[in-house]
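CHAIN AND CONFORMATION:

***
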Amino acid sequence: MEKVAILIITLNRSKFLIRQLEYYNKIKSNHPIYIGDSSNNYHKNRTLNKIKLLKNNLNIKYFYLPGFSDREAHFFLAKKCKEKYCAYSGDDDFLIPNALTQSANFLSNNDEFRTAQGHSLVFEINDGLVYGKDLNFSQYWRETQFDNISIQKRLTSFSKKYWTVVFSVRRTKEFIEDLKNFKNIPDRSFGELIQNFTAIANGKTKSLDCLYLIRQVHQSTYKLPSKFDWIESSDWYPSYKIFISSISKIITKNENITRTKAKI
């Protein structure tokens, strides 16, 4: 059975992270967990105390990364990962262990696919932030399979039906390749976009018929900014240039077109 490293970055949200670790402990997950923690001492110590209590039940690898941005911490964990397969998770998300295994097994038998994942739900707690009994659930992902041979067609379809590929299972070696430009991009939103578009540009993605991910929406959930506020940011244009250069380079390398045409 293939094991999938779960890569979690966190910043001053120990309650969310502890809830997540309790979840993996309760369902007896055997997938390794890598934590990149950039929190202050209070949240760091809370997390470390919980890890001590769970160390005999869960395979947890903890790294304290003070001062790291989310992109730097993300890349650091990917480089530390020893498993053949990995999947990113926020500290408030829940990946389904059986679905991780199914996704890794699929990739092991289908080299032309870069990523794999199942279905996803999103929930909101009406009577609390981390814990509560009054929950609303809805569908999160809709169409997540892009298996056209043409990179341009995959990217065009993906741009119209965007979703967060970063949560998918992928081969760790390929994940690190996909993050090459991610760690240095100055704008956080372009950081999300470049890793998702890079994954789609580099290979097909498979949607499996299983529940894979449960995400929570709450007041501190990161959302892409409005387009006007985003463009006014000083980091927007340099990040845009990195994004266009990176994606067009992949297209040019794999399809018989010029770099200029690839940028259009």
